[in-house]
Amino acid sequence: MTSVPVTSARPTAPRRIALRVGVLLVVLLALWAWVVADLDIDKLLRAPSRIADLFRLMFLPPLWSNFLPALKAMAESVQMAWLGTLMAAVLSLPLSLLAAHNVSGRFGSSATRQLLNGIRAFPELVLVILIVTVFGLGPVTGMLALGIHSIGTLGKLSSESVESIDPGPVEAVDAVGGTWLQRMRWGVLPQAMPEIVAFWLYRFEINIRASAVLGVVGAGGIGSQLSETLRYKEFAQAGMAFIVVVGVTLLIDAVSGRIRRRIISGVDRPVDGDAAMIVMDPTVVA
Amino acid sequence: MSAAPTAPSSHAARPPVERPTKPRPGANRWLALGAVAVLTWLAASATTGIDLVGRLSATIERGVPPRTREILAQIPNPAWEDAPATFGPFLETLSMAVLGTLIGCTLALVVAFGASSVTAGGRVRLALTRSLASLVRSVPDVMWALLFVSAVGTGTISGLLALVLFNIGVVAKLLSETIDAVDTGPLEAADAAGAGLVSRARAAVFPQVLPSYLAYSLYAFELNVRASAVLGLVGAGGIGTLLNLARTQFRYDRVSLIVAEIFVFVFLAEVLSITLRRRLVR
Predict the structure, then answer these.
(1) What is the pLDDT of residues A74-130, one digit of tens each?
(2) In 3-state terms, what secondary structure has residue A14?
(3) Which residues of A touch B95 (CB under 8 A)?
(4) What is the pTM of this model?
(5) Of A221, B127, B151, B204, which has the highest C-beta tally within 10 A?
(6) CA distances from A16 to B30, B210, B273 (A)
(7) Does the distance separating the beta carbons of B161 and A54 come in below 8 Å?
(8) Residue B165, number of CB atoms within 10 A of its CB
(9) CA distance B46 to chain A (A)
(10) Angle, nearest 10°, between helix axes A67-99 and A106-120?
């Protein structure tokens, strides 16, 4: 029997070298960024009072006479977002089946996946700049930009949803001699569809936000009104446009969020979901 | 119900087993499809919507005018010789994204603690922080940039401020949901030891949510890289300024150069962020 020591030392804290190196790197990065950004400190200090001034000009008092024109422009933005999302939903569904490794060939799935990654790397505003050359100024350009960008995100998310299905029903369709299409229709889609539809709605919510600014580069909707009124210093008009954007966005978020929760309530995955998915996958919002 | 007393000899001739009736497709499905059809028609029609068919057919009829043809011909031939001039603005964009992430995520940490019922300390404060956060979140990043450009003037400061607000919106929402779901054991321990609001958040909650917080921050960095590349289109500094210049001058050879560079830039940031995040989760 060995004697038990009377005083047990407090366990030493683990040495977290990786953490320290990480913190050091972040600090260095911040210093570098501070130097490169070359911020005008005077301007920065004056910013709060300038912002307060702008706030007063925009919202006090609200210019209600611009309410209906702003609402009309916002309606165009919402329509662009709706049609763009719909276009992306229709096109991304077959692509997501091709990209899912459990229902597609090995080569096909990795090729489709790279295609989706590539599409996603173009921001909507950049797509507008390219598309506007052919389709001209207007909401169709905005719709196409939103639609194309959303194919990338929706395709990726949907394919992950397809990859997480139970293989049983697919095997059952195989066993009775179903074709590839029948396998998709009866084995895969019934399982994956609720989640995929929830992704569509979620994307619609994001596209509303995106569509509200596409007008800045000429794609129609409320963005052009907002940027022009600000440029010509019609601040009260811009203020009302701003109020309308925020109000409509919050309203549609609330409705769409409820529908999403309702659709997916049978599925035991996080609903509002973004947190859990984002940790695994970065493309939910972008 | 069917076991009626008037049919005693049902054992002798068993009725054939009937195939179970197929469940009727719910009325909800038809309602949803109908709603989608109506909304789509409203959005696309000429009177209420954007006149999709009319505009598309007008574009097809007009064809591609010679001027557009010239522009399109420039796109496959990026002006590579101008690439060195774009490096400076790209560094500026990157620095905006880095500072925006660091400042925004730090502030978002505070907001997130105020926006979770676990750590808010009071219903009024909770409701106030939450509604403020969702207000901030409902405004797109480019719109923040537009506002700051008209308030503070063009340049990186406006872009930085826009990114900071945008980050607060995104990270505070995600993190407050994570805080809502923490294990309550440490919290009870902290309460039992008489910890105040700040120290219980620091000691009992923060260590639990740290990995998620870092993952969200990396994710926010990725969003910032994307956003900072285009904020210059509205005058908020960085490479977008050059993109806007090239666009308005119809120098689409420069546009395609910058777009190609943004593509690589965003792609690299995404790869970096995903790699680091995978490590964090494990």
Answers:
(1) 999 999 999 999 999 999 999 999 999 888 888 989 999 999 988 988 888 999 999
(2) coil
(3) 32-37
(4) 0.84
(5) A221
(6) 58, 15, 21
(7) no
(8) 20
(9) 12
(10) 160
